[in-house]
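Lecture notes, unit on protein representations.

Consider one protein chain, 287 amino acids long.
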Amino acid sequence: MKTYSASVFSTEKYDLGESPFYDVRTKTLSWVDIPKGKLFTQKVDDVNPVGEKNSFTFEKPIGAAVPAKKTGSYVVAGTDGIYLLENGEASLLKNLSEYFESYQRSNDAKADPAGRLWFGSSVDDDVHEASGNLFCLDGVNVTCMQPSTKISNGMAWSRDRKKFYFSDSLQYAVFAYDYDLTTGNISNRQILFKVEDGISDGMCIDSEDNLWGAFWGGHRIEQRSTKNGTLLATVNVDAKNVTSCCFMGDNLDTLFITSSGRNQTGEYDGCLFTCKVDAKGLPCDYA
């Protein structure tokens, strides 16, 4: 098994850094700080920052921001709706009040290979029991794809577009489904692997169909086979609560990693990290 060590990309700390993306069209990284309601973007030259970091602030927490089909725009999964951020202005695409309880908000989100937006819901306080659902926005229609989740988190699709992978954090498992590209339907849920150390969070997939998943409370990223869930590699991260990752750079062979600094005192808790690995990612899909 391979072992890597991540390097600090930025020493700025984020309360709950999440939703990392790399847009190959513009060589731009993006990520959010969920409770602050902030989306950040940073252009890079290969893996090195170029120019100033930009940010946009929403009035409420945002769970994720996915690069949109129109270059430079983002589809944002907010507390109460899905928004399009374009030219510095946010407009509501879909009100989610009928799908969320008053104490829930959007969590992780990704576009599928057909451009549909998949997003999860989760509880946004420490009072209510963990609950939520996994949804898909296709045009103006919202469909519940997986009911009764605890914390809907990482998502990925296989290279042949026939499998969907999903992390439900407090089910302590990553699941595999059959996926229909034409309809977007998922079926035949199976446990790919159970989590025994930490909590599975966000994830991405490489060109060989291996998952790279973050582990809250685990100080690490794991590479797992989608054939049988076997652990293939570990990336050690100098932050306790590692939240997600994506592939970045000219060769898409470097992981960009987010973490949470909330209630943590470590020197790099809440910072951003990178790690060059012996794998190559795929360009993200656009919503």
